[in-house]
Amino acid sequence: MNGKTYKLGFIGGGNMAEAIARGGISAGLFKPTELFIADPSAQRRELLAGELGIAASAESAEVVSASAAILLAVKPQKVEEALQQIKPVLEPSTLIISIVAAISTGFIEKQLGTGVRVVRVMPNTPVLVGAGASGLCRGSAATDVDMRFAVSIFGACGTVATVGESLMDAVTSLSGSGPAYVFYLAEAMTAAGVSLGLPLADAQLLARQTIIGAGRLLEQSEDSAAELRRKVTSPGGFTEAAINVMANQRFADIIAAALSAAVKRGSELSR
């Protein structure tokens, strides 16, 4: 650990940081005593220390000084302030892994100085239940070893795709924001079920479990999504009638337009 006390330090101890820490501990990547988290909230520090046995501090500089690698997990509007706080104590050997949305590796490199090693990650909220989808890209100075280390962390709480940084907005629009699209679908299915006469509780239960079950089948089947759809769509049946309406309403075009809008907004927000 390059003489450091901790393998990984977290700047920001919110829900995502907690989920990543839990995933790493559960997978055996880290012992609780190898993690150190900085968060301004005493309540969060007490929870993380009490439930996970992780060292916690209110001071980001303290965490950086004691950690071999840093996972930056602050809100985008706080990132510049956080980087300026850690810059005076950051050593050249310290890897920075950032999960801050819309913040490029170039922005972090500019703030911290030439040569700093940065890996940028876009996880999504299912990381909270160990089923995340994360896109990773490397900064200009990050090494293969750095990437393997980052992949191991996020692979412990889901699946990982490595892409070029020019594709990170696409990753954000597809998987980063993707859970919201699925939740929106569940809302719409529930509302439609109620309009057809189902009690709300039953409509919610059936919509939720349908999405859970379909996702599990997609995960475990060797068939593509398109093939699974074909298998459940009998000619002239219930499902075909519904699919035909979606196709006529240009459902695929709606999804494509939504993702394109998200990419455009990501580009506008990027730093």
Walkthrough of the structure:
By secondary structure, this protein is an alpha/beta fold. The protein has 2 domains: 6-168, 3-Layer(aba) Sandwich (Rossmann fold); 178-269, ProC C-terminal domain-like (ProC C-terminal domain-like fold, Orthogonal Bundle), CATH 1.10.3730.10. It is built from 12 helices and 8 strands. It has an 8-stranded mixed beta sheet, with helices on both faces. β1, α1 (15-26) and β2 form a beta-alpha-beta unit. α7 packs across α12 and α8 crosses α9 (200-220). It is elongated. It starts with 5 loop residues before the first strand and ends with a helix. The model has no long low-confidence stretch (mean pLDDT 96).
Q: Helix fraction?
A: 40-55%
Number of strands: 8
In what range is the share of β-strand residues?
5-15%
Low-pLDDT residue spans: none
CATH topology of the largest domain: Rossmann fold
Query: Termini, distance in Å?
Result: 31 Å
Whole-number count of domains: 2
Largest sheet: 8 strands, mixed
CATH architecture of the largest domain: 3-Layer(aba) Sandwich
Which strand order do you get reading across the main beta sheet?
A: 3-2-1-4-5-6-7-8
- For CATH, the homologous superfamily of the largest domain is named as NAD(P)-binding Rossmann-like Domain
